[in-house]
Amino acid sequence: MNLKAALERYVPDRRAQFEDLLGHMVEIPSISMDPARAGDIRRMATMAVDVLNGLDAKARIVETGGYPIVSGGWMTGARYPTVTIYNHMDVQPAQEAEWKRDPFAFANENGIYRGRGATDDKGPALSALFGARLAVEQGVPINIRFLWELEEEIGSPHFAAGLKDREGIPCPDSVVVSDTIWIAKGRPAAPYGLRGLIGARLSLRTGSKDAHSGVTGGAARNPLAELMDVAMACVNAKTGEVKIPGFYKDVVPPTKAEVASFLKSGFEVKRFKEAYGFHSLRTEAPAEVTRRIWAAPTFEVHGLTGGYHGPGIKTIVPGQAELKVSMRLVPNQAPERIFALLKAHVRTLNPNVRVEPEGMLHPFKGSFEGPYIDCVKRAAKAGFGKEPAFIREGGSIGAVVTMQKMWKVPILFLGLSLPEHGYHAPNEYFDWGQASGGMKAFAHYFAEVAKMKTG
């Protein structure tokens, strides 16, 4: 078996099929956080089964009590190792005014694939699938199963229920997640950790309706102002320091070796700012920026609602207001404990403010050493010409923590997206360079794992 030679023929031959499938997938608006899109979620699940079956990967829909999971793959031999590949088929909403075109009308611009979900996470999912198909065609002694979730963007609330279906989703020997972002084009990066998350809504009602500020102002309580005061008592807006008592108690800081690995990733402050449209940052030191975005907890304010939002000024005192916040968490912070700390702190600041949780995900930390990591290194080099840097991911993937807890098997990451692809942003896209490299990397990964188990 000459896998490298086979890939040189296989990848370009499959390009048209890859692009056609990705186009059809992108044009399904599988927005999990919009209840009105429940029919599109089901349509996406049905198409995903068809895609897997079309490549001879026996597939089925696994019901969860919420949105389903699609499970399918090739079981080539009971004595062979089994690898599960995780991706998700649900997407973020696409309502931003900055979209230059219909986000759910796929466009192929000479290998630039535009549309919501192209890079998060439908393009990477198909790249991994095509790499797996070649490995099977070449007789690699391995079992491969794909898990395509449809609730990742809402925190995977029913994923654990799906994993309990051991017939539809059997426990593997290891897992690879392909839902992460590199630091820079041309420099692969593989995370070994994810931050956790706890979201919250802080609401305050001080009246039954808006009131005239000229008649009531000065005597009336202003819930918008009071919630702003609460926010300032929770976080230093200039430095990012969280002021909630006990918040940092369980934080495990990164080691010197981890920080050194962060800096080997190709991270550049200038490129980071350009990719995300920042004019300035809280710090410009590369080591400190990477620590903050990958290995430190945060408190973020996402929105403040209430009062008047139209043109000009309407001179009212609002009767109610709501503050939307979240905290990213790191090992060993437990979201349940952090939420309790937030609630207690807000109670001392303003006992009239109601604090309600909005999603809760635990942090994850794996290893960046060992035989599976060596397989990731060799696979990335085969696909993209360089071994990956090992970093932590600043975001959260609820399914990863669930798989770790229920299966207790090694979980690796082999993401394919770039910062400029626009995760969760307007004008999202994927590209053939990353897709074709991903096919090669995954095909080699399966071959490497098979050698590790049989060699």
Automatic annotation (TrEMBL):
<dbReference type="GO" id="GO:0006508">
    <property type="term" value="P:proteolysis"/>
</dbReference>
<protein>
    <submittedName>
        <fullName>Putative Peptidase M20</fullName>
    </submittedName>
</protein>
<dbReference type="GO" id="GO:0008233">
    <property type="term" value="F:peptidase activity"/>
</dbReference>
<keyword id="KW-0645">Protease</keyword>
<dbReference type="InterPro" id="IPR011650">
    <property type="entry name" value="Peptidase_M20_dimer"/>
</dbReference>
<dbReference type="GO" id="GO:0046872">
    <property type="term" value="F:metal ion binding"/>
</dbReference>
<dbReference type="InterPro" id="IPR002933">
    <property type="entry name" value="Peptidase_M20"/>
</dbReference>
<feature type="domain" description="Peptidase M20 dimerisation">
    <location>
        <begin position="192"/>
        <end position="352"/>
    </location>
</feature>
<keyword id="KW-0479">Metal-binding</keyword>
<dbReference type="Pfam" id="PF01546">
    <property type="entry name" value="Peptidase_M20"/>
</dbReference>
<dbReference type="InterPro" id="IPR051458">
    <property type="entry name" value="Cyt/Met_Dipeptidase"/>
</dbReference>
<keyword id="KW-0378">Hydrolase</keyword>
<dbReference type="Pfam" id="PF07687">
    <property type="entry name" value="M20_dimer"/>
</dbReference>
